[in-house]
Amino acid sequence: MFSARPPAKVNLTLEIVGRRPDGFHELRSVFLRVGGLSDRLSVSLGAANGTDTLRVDGLPGASASDNLVLRALELVRVNAGLALPALDLTLDKRIPVAAGMGGGSSDAAAALALARAAWGVSISRPTELKLAAALGSDVPFFVTESAAALVTGRGEEMSALPAIVGGAGLLLVTPAMSISTGSVFGRFDALTGAVEPGTATDELARELRSGIDGTRLAALAERLRDANHLWSASASLAPSLPALRERLEQATDRPWLLSGSGPTLFAIYPSAHEAGDAGRLIVARTDAADLLIHAADLTGPDPAWRYP
Ligand code: C5P
Question: Whose CA is nearest to atom 2 of ligand 1?
Fold first, then answer.
């Protein structure tokens, strides 16, 4: 059996700098890997002439029949051009589904690697990145296994950035709603005229290249708070999001950022321990029903604290 812990990501910035003829949007974004919140995926060889199977446990919302991990196996099989036996997969969902943390994309990247290992086939790095981009815009980031990256193009071009020195803690709050990425980009187009490129992504990438620690990253959060151009679109599809953000900012006295297309909101702390303390305070002082809360460090493997 082969197994992996596909990690989550957050977007520290997400600037939309153009619309493309292929219908996608041109991005400039800093992705940060969150090893402290990860799914579990395992693969074993199945029946010689059967079909691939997938069992999904854990958090709700992920499909067992129409899942990117199954598409990942199919791409590896087609690329190998060989009759390869079926694989049996088990996926334990711990990253909230359709929540802006890239869980499905990370699972797909892990499935590419596990299928390769289980079948003993080799795939060149450029081909693997091409297969990843065919699966989804966020998948190449997870294939590279970078701690952080400056991500451009549709999401498939990237340059690795160094890890946060000594790590950092994130407090991640996911309301009980899922929003599809496509619908948020669609709403962005409906709400926004000409796109206005910002400078937040390039400034942050410069900072990260100089090697910053968690305390410095937390201090930058004020500048990053409004560097996600999908905020208005996400809040328009999830109208309770602005009030939730206000409540979290009041309770913790720090800025909260939107990850990806949402609805996950997160705050940055110097350590996962401090993020956990803040999480306990939110649960004690506010109505946390319908919220999933994780305090995680960047390397993992499991959250330092979670609610419920
Ligand atoms: O690539 P992925 O399947 O994750 O994208 C989901 C949807 O999000 C796309 O169909 C597209 O509508 C939108 N999207 C976009 N521009 C991007 C990434 C995604 O418009 N750079």
Answer: 136
Confidence (pLDDT) at 48: 73
**What digits encode the pLDDT tens for the residues 54-94?**
999 999 999 999 999 999 999 999 999 988 999 999 999 99
- Closest ligand 1 atom to the C-alpha of 27? 21
CA–centroid distance, 5 to ligand 1, in Å, is 24
Per-residue tokens: 31: 């992705």
Strand pairing category for 40-45 and 87-93: antiparallel
Q: Is the CB of 182 under 6 A from ligand 1?
A: yes
What residue ranges in the chain does DSSP mark as E strands? 2-4, 7-19, 25-38, 40-45, 53-58, 87-93, 148-153, 157-161, 169-175, 257-258, 265-269, 291-297, 305-307
Q: Which helix (H) or strand (E) holds 219?
A: helix 214-224
Pocket test for ligand 1, best of 181, 189, 229, 261 (most atoms within 8 A of CB): 181
Q: How far is residue 141's CA from residue 289's CA, in Å, rounded to a whole number? A: 33
Structure confidence by residue, pLDDT tens digits, 199-211: 999 999 999 999 9
Distance (Å) from CA 187 to ligand 1 centroid: 12
Count how many residues are written for the chain: 308
